[in-house]
Amino acid sequence: MTFQDTTVSQLDAIVNAASNAFTTYGASPAATRAALLRGLADALESQRTALVALADQETHLGTARLNGELDRTSFQLRGFATQVEQGVPFAFTDDPAVAGAPPVGHPHLMRVRVPVGPVAMFSASNFPFAFSVLGGDTAAALAAGCPVVVKAHRGHRALSHAVADLARGVVAAQGLPTGVFGMVDGRGTEVGMSLVQHPLIAAAAFTGSVRGGLALEKAAQSRPRPIPFFGELGSVNPLVALPSALAAKGAELAQGLAGSITMGCGQFCTSPGVIVVPQGAPGDAFVAQLADALKASTPHHMLTAQMRAGFDAGRAAWATHPGLTTVLGETAAESQPPRPFLAQINAAGFLADPALHEEVFGPAALVVRVAGTAEAIEVLQAIGGSLTVTIWGADEPSEEVVALVRAASQVAGRVLFSGYPTGVAVSAGQQHGGPFPSSTQPGSTSVGWAAMDRFLRPVALQDAPGWLAARQGQPC
Ligand code: NAP
Hints:
Residues 2-304 form the Aldehyde dehydrogenase domain. By secondary structure, the protein is of the alpha/beta class. Helices cover 43% and strands 16% of the residues.
């Protein structure tokens, strides 16, 4: 199947249609938005078999994982529909007038939220359903009342077009303006850049590499009218195993951790990349158990040849690093799926080389051996911003544990006290996005119901006329 890149004039027409659609969709009631979101979920599910087969052909992620991802995608769409029906985007603060001179006295103020306008949405390579054409960003923007223009990911082009066709069908069947959903396709450096720079685009959402994200963020901010750029970039997701956790169930944790490192061939944004383990015999045993479990695993092919090349380069740099000891270092021919890789270093060596603090995307992890909690904290601080930090064994609030939890909260968007960081629940309490580089806007989340907040902007209505106040937060 061949696909044409979107031309400059086509892109302009698609964004203009989104802008035209915004005049009505932005003011649409809950029922309209919820029906659209549910309709999209139903349509995805109705085409499940064909879509999953196409996704598997293009991504190698396997039908079990892809079916699960499709379930999550329709769950997200329906979940946002419920949020809209519950009035979340229309919630407002009513602040009645107070008689008298300021600062005590003030006029009647209603703090409402309005949708920002057409959103540019960059599909992620590693979630062909859940963070692509009808993924979390699209669902959140539509729930907020914003039309969406998707930039398809070239790693799953046929799937993107199939899902976009299906979405356009739902929009038409519901009698909504065509521009509520649009998609462009082509090189990021051309089509993606033009999209972010288009004057009618009001915000952009992105999941991908630090390099691509920074280039697009710069474009978003260099426009005559800069726009918010919600980028989810790299993340190392350090995990700290305290001695008590290893003593209680080290072997079980090692087994589960190997599954987390190799899940999706290590191509999860939350894949654990640095494992902080205490020095000494229990730590040695844990590392050996982890290596055994990794050795027994059989990752599938990576998403693209480019990602495989990136993994091989990162892995080779670790394997030849003078301060690192390779624990598990099997290699595989390019035509075969990659083998998991595990290396080990002490805290001083890790802290001394900033190159080791970077993400290696794929089934690889680096064990950092520490003398105690103080060194573990230094490791977290050296890595910096991350989507997650996992701490095993923080059961008692000792001074050291409290300091570790505080340090983890400073660098991560989500701190886990059990389990593994892969697998991100879509719910009200979720926070997916921490300090840079894990997010360009750490005050926001790209997963969970709060993701809708990115596409709503507060407006204070001062002494609003009766008809406007009576809309109770519903934009006009
Ligand atoms: P990517 O290369 O950043 O691509 C994501 C999107 O951005 C694509 O649509 C791409 O268009 C566009 N793009 C890339 N560079 C651009 C630039 N300079 N200017 C304008 N647009 C640009 O990410 P990817 O393809 O998903 O994966 C590449 C690497 O990103 C991975 O190997 C991994 O290291 C990292 N990654 C990290 C995460 C995470 O969450 N931590 C997730 C996915 C990927 P094109 O298709 O034309 O390139």
